[in-house]
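Table S4 entry, SDR family oxidoreductase.
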Amino acid sequence: MKSDKNKIAIVTGGGSGIGLAIAEKFVQNKITVIIIGRDQVKLETAKNKLGELCIPVAFDLDNLSSVPELINDLIKKHKKIDILVNNAGINLKKEFTEVTDEEFQRIMHTNVTAMFALSREVVKCMIKNGSGSIINISSMASQYGIPKVIAYSASKAAIEGMTRAMAVELSPKGIRVNCIAPGFIATEMSAKALNNDKERKDKVMSRTPMGALGMPADIGDAAVFLASAASAYITGVVLPVDGGNSVGF
């Protein structure tokens, strides 16, 4: 990936979990990574781990009116943005009938509307440069019927639809848009969902042909591939990285 040297990437939610793993893989491939998140402590910890190619930016993406200014400032400092990974997202596990309108809108606002606003501003820069790679992070929740995550499922289904629409509109302008749909990955979030629910964990493992949870680095490797010239003729795809879970029986 020598051709990726001097590239500039943005990874939202890059301070922990899958976002941090993606940022780490980018840094290993000599890509400068701007990690955006709300938790300053997590961002600084990530910076200490990843080194000089990691640039932490504390910002709340829910603050839509400030997104254009954020991107303009980043472009002034770094001249360009080659890669955008829309990873930031929140979840809510709750009975369908107990989810309030406000809770549903909060999930959609963070996971979909903020992603749209950030992508729109980054794309303006990419169009001027005639190139770019956008990677959206979806979830198996967009394709499965998983109980108690109605808002999260709706948001991830929207992301996959947006990926295809963006790819068709932007690929002629030199901007590829793809999506990664992680399976059950060993993160703090999945641990909370599985470790105290043996029945759910047994079900996950029984239908995962590879017989193990994925690691955050597996998503990082997929992101590196989709961001690089190795995937130059790939756009508009939703790539499951799930150990075969989506085809398991």
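The chain has one domain: 2-241.
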